[in-house]
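F.,

This is the one I mentioned.
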């Protein structure tokens, strides 16, 4: 007998896959030996905003994402050009600093610049300060040409008053700034400056030289207005925050290394009309922070570049409930586009109290709490997301996956749709106690009709210790590939939803325990099967679903023990009968347990399933009552 094995698998690196010709093979009984082929798959769709479910729930609406800013800064093209003939030279030396300009006041090791203009500084002050104080409406430009400035009582550079200041790192120069371990202020009500490089006004740093800043008391670099770092190479080590721009912090085409006892990069203006924002473009950042690595009261936009981030000791130990040690945190929103990132954190790897949008990039995440958490809405339009360790993988009130490749290894839920503020993993009620699992108190409130998970395309693999896909509202799947290696305990399910689950396209395979097993609902337009086996199958046991003609439509080997299996595929047809085969082997390789090539042999039939309706249940188990039902 000639046989065929079909496996429906979305390949995310291509928008469409071509059909392959099947190879004939023989089969005896339910044992199969055949070449695997793929049916033609249509291109998955991409989008730039969160998509509401196209089916149920009808009351859901498109979430309101913030308008990602075309950030206006203090920069001007003229900031980075100057007349060399007008440059004022300053030579620094302990008690011997020199300048021929009357615009420079030298008092011991205090160098005061009283006017706008371009100043070139070189030399060393072992206990001194550069003070900028001018009423001029023109900018002050400081060219660092090999400076080494330390202060034993204050900031190394204190920009007290100016329209704006531009710091140029001269080509080939190495520059160092260090502040005092204890500041001496003129009175008890004065607490500024508070950084080794401190500015009360807008500041820019640029140039092909290098800058190393040591912040011994508070911050290393701080501006009380906006801060732009462009085409610069900077290393900072700070007792508290590394680099802070209150109104905004823009980093473009730069290389930064930040070690901080507080936050790494920070924009903390909390005025509701001008929340602090961070924008990162085409930059290489290495950040190790005891607080948040990147933190903004408003938006964080990371449009390109490379990030290497760690908070505390990383995902090996969680931050306390009172602390924040997140990787990327934008309280209003986070936008990620075209970034290569390695993020290992003691708190959420990526977090927003508002919305998160990921359009492209390669994100390698590990977290002692959530991989990606947004209070309001999370949209994934593309990119590669690999969450190698977390408590929960993706968490938000509304989640839309339109494209991309996502891998999640979670100790609790893989994807969790819930309402309210985040407290996952922190201070939740214990198992078996009122309130349920840890963190559930904080994320379990709100109207279920406004909570949903929509999967329109892409590839999702979830390995979960808790629920695989968990929605306190509803789930809609219109396309893509979703594989779930769910829980092994009966207190959780591979699928867990409170509202409805409508599947209208794509491939869904969800393996897990039997006690809380759920299937998609009858509102689906694509057939689905829930199989519950008499016994738990050992991890790695091959499962295949075969037609009466011996064609295997699904071949999957879960990484964990399982007793239930949910399958939905465009290849299933109502009125047909299928055989569920357990065991055997495959000559092909598996990707996340899904076998897309090679041959199958051996195994035995565990059930014959006839599809008479959109959702078919097979097996006897007191844990489920109906499609979508719970005990």
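My design for it:
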């Amino acid at each position: 007998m000639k046989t065929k094995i079909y496996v429906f698998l979305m390949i995310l690196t291509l928008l469409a896959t071509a059909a392959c010709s099947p190879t004939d093979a023989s089969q005896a009984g339910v044992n199969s030996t055949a070449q695997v082929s793929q049916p033609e798959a249509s291109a998955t769709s991409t989008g730039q905003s969160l998509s509401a479910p196209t089916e149920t729930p009808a009351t859901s609406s498109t979430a309101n994402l913030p308008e990602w800013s075309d950030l206006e800064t203090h920069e001007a093209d003229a900031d980075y050009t100057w007349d060399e003939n007008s440059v004022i030279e300053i030579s620094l030396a302990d008690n011997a600093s020199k300048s021929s300009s009357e615009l420079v006041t030298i008092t011991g090791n205090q160098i005061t610049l009283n006017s706008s203009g371009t100043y070139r500084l070189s030399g060393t002050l072992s206990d001194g300060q550069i003070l900028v104080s001018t009423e001029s409406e023109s900018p002050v430009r400081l060219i660092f040409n090999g400076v080494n400035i330390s202060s034993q009582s204050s900031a190394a550079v204190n920009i007290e008053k100016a329209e704006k200041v531009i710091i140029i790192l001269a080509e080939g120069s190495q520059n160092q700034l260090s502040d005092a371990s204890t500041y001496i202020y003129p009175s008890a009500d004065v607490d500024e400056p508070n950084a080794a490089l401190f500015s009360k006004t807008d500041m820019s740093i640029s140039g092909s030289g290098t800058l190393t800043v040591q912040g011994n008391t508070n911050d290393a670099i701080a501006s009380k207005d906006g801060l732009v770092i462009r085409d610069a190479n900077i290393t900072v080590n700070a007792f508290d925050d590394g680099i802070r721009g209150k109104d905004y912090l823009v980093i473009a085409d730069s290389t930064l290394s930040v070690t901080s006892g507080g936050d790494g990069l920070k924009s903390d203006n909390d005025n509701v009309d001008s929340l602090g924002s961070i924008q990162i473009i085409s930059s290489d950042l290495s950040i190790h922070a005891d607080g948040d690595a990147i933190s903004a009261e408003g938006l964080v936009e990371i449009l390109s570049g490379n990030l290497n981030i760690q908070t505390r000791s990383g995902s090996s130990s969680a931050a306390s409930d009172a602390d924040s040690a997140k990787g990327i945190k934008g309280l209003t929103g986070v936008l990620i586009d075209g970034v290569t990132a390695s993020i290992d954190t003691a708190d959420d790897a990526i977090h927003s109290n508002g919305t998160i949008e990921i359009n492209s990039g390669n994100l390698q995440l590990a977290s002692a709490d959530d991989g990606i958490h947004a209070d309001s809405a999370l949209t994934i339009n593309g990119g590669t997301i690999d969450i190698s360790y977390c408590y929960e993988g993706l968490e938000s009130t509304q989640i839309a996956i339109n494209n991309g490749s996502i891998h999640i290894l979670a100790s609790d839920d893989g994807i969790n749709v819930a309402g309210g503020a985040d407290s996952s993993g922190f201070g939740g009620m214990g198992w078996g106690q009122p309130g349920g699992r840890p963190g559930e108190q904080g994320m379990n409130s709100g109207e279920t009709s406004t909570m949903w998970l929509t999967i329109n395309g892409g590839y999702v693999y979830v390995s979960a210790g808790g629920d695989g896909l968990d929605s306190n509202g509803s789930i809609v799947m219109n396309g893509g590939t979703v594989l779930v290696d769910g829980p092994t305990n009966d207190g959780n399910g591979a699928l867990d939803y409170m509202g409805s689950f409508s599947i209208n396209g794509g491939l869904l395979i969800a393996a897990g325990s039997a006690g809380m097993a759920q299937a998609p609902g009858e509102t689906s337009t694509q057939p689905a099967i829930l199989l519950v086996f008499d016994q738990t199958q050992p991890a790695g046991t091959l499962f295949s679903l075969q037609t009466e003609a011996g064609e295997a439509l699904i071949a999957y080997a879960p990484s964990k023990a399982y007793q239930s299996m949910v399958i939905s595929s465009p290849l299933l047809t109502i009125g047909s009968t299928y055989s569920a085969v357990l065991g055997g082997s495959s000559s092909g390789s598996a990707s996340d347990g899904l076998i897309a090539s090679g041959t199958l042999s051996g195994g035995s039939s565990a059930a014959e399933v006839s599809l008479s309706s959109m959702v078919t249940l097979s097996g006897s188990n007191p844990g489920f009552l109906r499609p979508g039902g719970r005990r």
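DSSP finds one helix and 58 strands in the chain.

Talk soon.
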